[in-house]
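Below is one such protein, fold included:
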Amino acid sequence: MESNKKYAVITGASSGIGYATAKAFAKRGKNLIIVARRKEQLEHLKKEVLEINPALDVVIKVCDLSILQNAYHLYDELTEYYIETWINNAGFGDYRSVSRMDLNKVGTMLRLNVETLTVLSSLYVRDYKEVEGTQLINISSGGGYVIVPNAVTYCATKFYVSAFTEGLAHELTAEQAKLQAKVLAPAATQTEFGKTANNVSEYDYDKNFGNYHTSVQMADLLLELYDSDQTVGAINRDSFTFSLRSPIFDYAGNSINNQKHIMIK
């Protein structure tokens, strides 16, 4: 770990919210480790970041995180860096009824949205739980709190992200850990998401949504969550307003009906 330099890791950084978030963090003088499958887009992002602040260190990691073993390899490669912030942004959606799902696509979505996010979150928490000023931010969705028609399986993956991250935040609070776990839940955002989710080459957000954010707007809202002491940053799907708040899901806490705590040595 390089103690003299601190980095923010952003997965899914080659486009959309991840791309815009990297530039937003660069404006704050943050060194970056940007991760995605597409090397050309990452190199273009690095160029733009260095135009913002030439003094920054920008590390490119080309990695397909839909292959679970790659998540372990990526994390191992980053142990030499001091990672102040880890943002799990990589993921994609699928708009199709359950009876018509492409199970190969769904399998990849489950691995990326759920398994890889869980592995990277767990590894990061193990190493940085007691490090002051560290944050884990997982990108969920408005569909991680409300089931959207024809996107049931995608929503299920994002319900997992929301519940997992909120539960982790409760655990960290109970342990008086220094690391903070947070979840960002965007609504419709103009990115490549629409094309991928609908299996089309072109996608018109003006035609398909009454309201939507740009990726730059969502990156700015992510920074509001980053700067806050709250756990959840969410877009209301009806009013399209953004709010910062404590965990949303019910938490059993110290219920007498919980399993008794078992000490693991």
About this structure: The CA atoms of residues 3 and 82 lie 6 Å apart.
